[in-house]
From TrEMBL:
The keyword Membrane applies. Pfam families: ABC2_membrane. PROSITE patterns: ABC_TM2 (PS51012). GO terms for cellular component: ATP-binding cassette (ABC) transporter complex. Its main location: membrane. InterPro entries: ABC2_TM, ABC2_TM_bact-type, ABC_2_transport. This is Polysaccharide ABC transporter, permease protein (RfbA-1). The chain crosses the membrane at residues 29-50, 62-86, 107-128, 134-157, 169-191, 225-243. PANTHER family: INNER MEMBRANE TRANSPORT PERMEASE (PTHR30413), TRANSPORT PERMEASE PROTEIN (PTHR30413:SF8). Keywords: Cell inner membrane, Cell membrane, Membrane, Transmembrane, Transmembrane helix, Transport. It is found in: Cell inner membrane. GO terms for biological process: lipopolysaccharide transport.
């Protein structure tokens, strides 16, 4: 389904996304606060553990906070997104709904939550020393591209999960590796300069630095953004082709 197809289905997508968003906080008294608590605590622990080691990093508390919150969207949205077909098998086998809309709605709902979470930390980052300025207006564009990237991943993961039910354990290990392979706690300058260009091919490392550029340095890292945009579009296009091929046997397997 191309962009025109999504636009034709926009009412269905909006309804499904709203439902997913409400389901996430259903039965919780504090709603969004709970989703903020876990990353805040993680950022606090990482700051306390590493603050002496990286005391020379300017505004280290804000540095860690932004890294944790940006990575959280990737970690949570993919771990939930991979179950969108298996977890909604009744919709796949008993309705004519376009199956791509299932991972899309989940990705959009978690994208909305993540955007709200990042907006909440903006004033905190500012208080901690971040240089928040006019480039904050570019934040919705950055986050929209990040959602496209996650959607592309979820197309792969959700279709693979139908055939390989232990994928969630494998993906948990992979996300942990990516966490330590990204500049969340340690500064980018720790990577030897000769390897830094290769290191930044990691899209998660790239998007974290893009967010830090906006929230902490009041600048748009245009070269990194263009790279991440191209990766996101290519990943989503490849994900759509892969998903359509794999979905032919969803009914049989489910």
């Amino acid at each position: 389904m191309g962009m025109s197809g999504y636009l034709r289905k926009r009412d269905v997508i909006i309804t499904m996304t709203q439902f997913e968003f409400k389901q996430r906080y259903r039965g919780t008294a504090l709603g969004l606060i709970w989703s903020l608590l876990a990353p805040f605590l993680l950022a606090l622990v990482l700051f306390l553990v590493f603050r002496n080691m990286f005391s020379w990093v300017e505004n280290f508390a804000a540095y860690v906070l932004v890294g944790v919150f940006v990575f959280r969207f990737f970690q949570v949205a993919t771990s939930v997104g991979m179950h969108t077909i298996v977890g909604k098998s009744h919709l796949v086998t008993k309705t004519n709904i376009d199956r791509e809309l299932l991972p899309l709605a989940t990705t959009l709902s978690y994208g909305m939550s993540s955007f709200l979470e990042i907006l909440v930390i903006v004033p905190i980052v500012h208080v901690l020393g971040g240089n928040v300025g006019f480039t904050i207006l570019f934040l919705p564009v950055i986050h929209f591209v990040y959602i496209i990237f996650i959607f592309g991943l979820n197309l792969f993961l959700s279709s693979l999960m139908v055939y390989f039910r232990d994928l969630n354990q494998i993906w948990e290990v992979i996300t942990n590796v990516i966490f330590f392979a990204s500049p969340i706690v340690y500064p980018l300058t720790m990577i030897p300069e000769s390897y830094r260009e290769m290191y930044m091919l990691n899209p998660i490392a790239c998007i974290i630095e893009i967010y830090r550029g906006i929230l902490m340095e009041n600048q748009i890292l245009l070269e990194k953004f263009i790279y991440f945009l191209l990766i996101s579009l290519a990943l989503t296009f490849a994900g759509q082709l892969f998903f359509r091929r794999m979905q032919k046997r969803f009914g049989e397997v489910l």
